[in-house]
């Protein structure tokens, strides 16, 4: 690995360049003493960089520079650099040595992991795809939740209406609630009569429902009950009903 390479003005003989630099350890980035530096010039040159510094005088040409560091007779780190000397001058070439692996013992795991190159366009498309899927899933969940909520609400309303009908029939059945002008009506039915009388003897079922605190199911039951008792008359008009208090009951109740 070349750390720096500079060319300075000519200071030596014609067509001869000076190549010099420092050798560094790959772990500590410190000068690596007693490194052997070689170059395949004619004749070949070799020197011991005792303090981690080397220097060669080379004519114009292309050369292979080798740096080797041994410890206890074993090659520990090594590096090769190609030199292209195009003119005379002063060249500075610093070298960072790398670990030297015995030939044939280099495993795939010894090499640094190289991340897969992903194009920016593919990444954007992938993010857009994820966003679309997220929106579709979220929308589907919301729709499914709304459907379940409506079904449960409908079942609950149906159950409440059934329970309210059963309670109403129980509360308003028996001899004490028989149809008789002499017998007073239950309190809730009397409340309906009072509202109809206050509106001049007739009212729409929708308005009656608004003035009562009962559910729509119970209001329908009370209207039907009063109709069966002969106290009111229910007249169909459009999509609703008009509740009319019969004249004979208008005066007596």
CATH architectural type of the domain at 2-101: Sandwich
Helix and strand content put the structural class at alpha+beta
Rounded Rg? 52 Å
Q: Tell me about the largest β-sheet.
A: 5 strands, antiparallel
Q: Please identify the top-level CATH class of the domain at 2-101.
A: Mainly Beta
Residue share in β-strands: 25-35%
Helix content: 25-40%
CATH topology of the domain at 2-101: Immunoglobulin-like
What general form does the structure show? rod-shaped
Q: What's the arrangement of strands in the largest beta sheet?
A: 4-3-6-7-9
Order of helices and strands: EEEEEEEEEHHEHHEEH
Q: What is the straight-line distance between the termini?
A: 110 Å
Question: Stretches where pLDDT falls below 50 for ≥5 residues?
Answer: 1-12, 110-120, 174-182
Please describe what this structure looks like.
- The chain is an alpha+beta fold and 253 residues long.
- The protein contains five helices and twelve strands.
- The protein has a five-stranded antiparallel sheet, with no helix packed on it.
- The longest helix has 53 residues, at 120-172.
- The model is unreliable at 1-12, 110-120 and 174-182 (pLDDT under 50).
Key attributes of the depicted protein:
alpha+beta; Immunoglobulin-like; Arc Repressor Mutant, subunit A; 5-stranded antiparallel sheet; 5 helices; 12 strands; disordered N terminus
What's the gist of this structure?
With 253 residues, the chain is α+β, with helices and mostly antiparallel strands. Among the domains are: 100 residues, Carboxypeptidase-like, regulatory domain (Immunoglobulin-like, Sandwich), CATH 2.60.40; 70 residues, Orthogonal Bundle (Arc Repressor Mutant, subunit A), CATH 1.10.10. The protein has five helices and twelve strands.
